[in-house]
Amino acid sequence: MTPMRIDRFLAQCGAGSRSEVKQLLKKGLVLVNGITAEKPETKVIPGQDRITVAGEPVCYEPHEYVMLHKPAGCVTAARDARHKTVMEYLGAEYQADPASGQSAPVLHKADLAPVGRLDRDTEGLLLLTSDGDLAHRMTAPKSHVDKTYFAKVRGFVDEEDILAFASGLEIGEKHPTLPAKLVVLSGGAMSEIELTIQEGKFHQVKRMFAARGKEVLYLKRISMGGVRLDESLLPGQWRRLTAEEIQTLYDACGLPQGHDTKGR
Q1: What are the extents of the domains in the chain?
Q2: pLDDT in tens, 207-254
């Protein structure tokens, strides 16, 4: 791994801001391989050097893994001239992390990218990561990663729809959709359903119901790759994934056990 400055390393690991880290260094509270480090420009090799602050080991996380409760009305993009983007919800230099109840270190947003997309008017679980390998596996059609949605649909969703979704639907693409699991939560003129698909075609859920003569009025993604949306997160809030959630995503993609979870 490329050497980096100790002050930058500690700031990224959540030990404090750059100025706070400098105070820790001045007080002699930072050790690198058992030797006191006093200068912020001291170089360390993440994952190789043993670094402690006040006797506590500091672990480096090579990638960021974030779940965002995407609100409706924003676009899944890094920048957009007309609409607010999901990246704007990741906050300023420090932001409360609901998972820990403490301040979380700055997210390196330039390195983060959404894993797939959600339509502008769709809300729910959006994963973001700097782990390009994982993101590719999560979105590759041949990986068959489950994505589950909750929807309110205008029209009676019945057993015929369940069978049609399970067989694959023609939605104007070269091939029919892959088999999908449709569960009716409540029927009637306004039906509530859960739908699990393994693709991510443009407006796919809406087009699938349109092919059955029905209209999706509300859509929320609740799960992806076995990781469910943390319902304690209000729309627009985020938190880092736990080590268990990260491993769940690796397992869903068929990546090796413990792949890239070093330091967690």
Answers
A1: 4-57, 65-141+227-253, 146-224
A2: 999 999 999 999 999 999 999 999 999 999 998 888 889 999 999 998
Q: Which CATH class is domain 65-141+227-253?
A: alpha beta
Regarding the domain delimited by 4-57, which CATH topology (the fold level of the hierarchy) does it fall under? 3.10.290
Question: Is there a shared CATH topology between the 65-141+227-253 domain and the 146-224 domain?
Answer: yes
Under a CB-based contact definition with an 8 Å cutoff, are residues 81 and 88 in contact? no
pLDDT band at 19 (very low <50, low <70, confident <90, very high): confident
With vertex at residue 128, the alpha carbon angle to CA 127 and CA 134, rounded to the nearest 5 degrees, is 90
* Burial track 2-36 (b if 16+ CB lie within 10 A, e otherwise): eeebbbebbbbbbbbbeeebbebbeeebbbbeeee
80: Cβ–Cβ under 8 A, 6 or more apart, which residues?
none
Residue owning tokens 């609409």: 83
Active site residues: 119
Q: Which residues on neighbouring strands pair with residue 182, listed in sequence order?
A: 195
* Both tokens assigned to 197: 């698909």
Say which CATH topology domain 146-224 has: Alpha-Beta Plaits (3.30.70)
Query: What is the rounded CA–CA span in Å between residue 187 and residue 54?
Result: 59
DSSP 8-state code for residue 173: S
Q: Is 144 left (phi over 0), alpha (psi -120 to 50) or beta?
A: left
